[in-house]
Amino acid sequence: MPLKEAFKLALQSLWANKLRSILTLFGVIIGVASVIMVVTLTNGAKQFVTSKVNTYGAAVITISRMPQTFITIDEFIEFQKRKFVTYDDYRAVLSDCKSCVAVGAQRTNSTGKVVRGTKSTTDTQIRGWTWTMPSLSNLDIAIGRSYTDSEDTHSAHVAIVGSDIEDNVLGPGDPLGKEIRVDGVPFTVIGVGQSQGKMFGQSMDNWVAIPLTTFLERYGSQGSLQIYVDAGGGGAVMESVSDELRTIMRARRHLAPDKPDAFSIDSSATFQNLLGNILDNFGAVVVAIAAISLVIGGIVIMNIMLVTVTERTREIGVRKALGAKRKDILMQFLIESALLAMQGGFIGVLLGIGLAKLLTLAIGFPSVVALWSIAVGLIVSASVGLFFGIYPAHKASALDPITALRAEL
Question: Which residue of 170, 206, 233, 300 is 20 to 30 Å from 4, comparing CA positions?
């Protein structure tokens, strides 16, 4: 039998039992949709980590009281016992680090109130920045400028704002030169940062940055800074700069050689590696669950195909009596099983992508469709159909034509 004719017969059979075919596919649909959705969301999250979560450059090192990532509550409690990273620490790094290309520091308040006229926000992040922080944090100034070293040193009342503040507080017109009140203190807007979009549904543009010295005068020194350092390169260069920074900070902490660091030095790779491992492990768990769904779906397909063989016993007998060979019957039922599963795979692909994009629209979680995952989903679903269709197809092809013709008499 020509392959084209076998496909035609298989499609006709599936179309004749549309409802049963659809109900049979649920296991395959759930399995493939799970894999596609997880791969799409995982790829999106990894890309997001590379471009946005990791807000500083590949050659930037940070010094902070606590590491960017920790696993247990015991670690958190231990890190809380550490001394704050202070403005004096920043000045020491700035003056003593000979290998550092650029040095900056920041401190943030979780939220603050920003007011202009009748418009205001109450959940805006207030940042204290040194004048080098925009470049160290990869922030482009879309309108205006950053503040200068002199403005930073002399505690000027100038501010750079996120695009949400421009849209919701400053109102129409040129934002530069407008006055806003940050927790009751007046500041003049000199720049607007480029929009950063959303992260996990939360805007990354609802912030105001003021000079760090002004921030410390306004909010006090009871809080830990984060020092940013541009190492000027990765690999060995970054390792060398990290060692120099560690020497400076250990000397300031008066740590004995056998004592561990009382501060944390991190690079862009730290968070990327941890989140990458978490996402990979999460993906592995979901893929395992999806595999179980595919196996269940395959078993259902096999059972339905066995029922189909029983229902079509007389048809098989007629075809064999008219000259159909065993391989023709085998091919027809294998193709029918594979097409059945591939339909489930196709629906699963569409459903998985749709759910991932819906999640992106709902909460801003990033998603990136990987073409290879679509191909894998379709190939795996077809393979499930072929594997679990072998037994029913073999049973159909092995039927004795005379016995088959007498089946319904």
Answer: 300
| β-strand partners of 119 | 116
What gap in Å lies between CA 15 and CA 38, rounded to an integer?
31
Q: Write out the H or E segment, with its range, that includes residue 230.
A: strand 226-230
- DSSP symbols for 274-288: HHHHHHHHHHHHHHH
Name the pTM for this structure. 0.65
Q: How far apart are CA 313 and CA 267, in angstroms?
A: 68
User: Comparing C-alpha atoms, which of 195, 154, 162, 196 is closest to residue 180?
Assistant: 162
First to last CA, the chain: 28
146-150, 231-235, 359-363 — which is least confidently predicted?
Answer: 359-363
Scanning the structure block, which residue is given the tokens 């994009």?
357
Pairing of strands 185-193, 141-144: antiparallel
Residue pLDDT, tens place only, 203-247? 889 999 999 999 999 998 888 999 999 988 877 888 899 999 999
Amino acid in position 124: T
**Long-range residue pairs from 18-25, CB within 8 A, at least 24 positions apart, any chain:** 20/304, 21/340, 21/343, 24/300, 24/301, 24/304, 24/340, 24/344, 25/297, 25/340, 25/341, 25/343, 25/344, 25/347
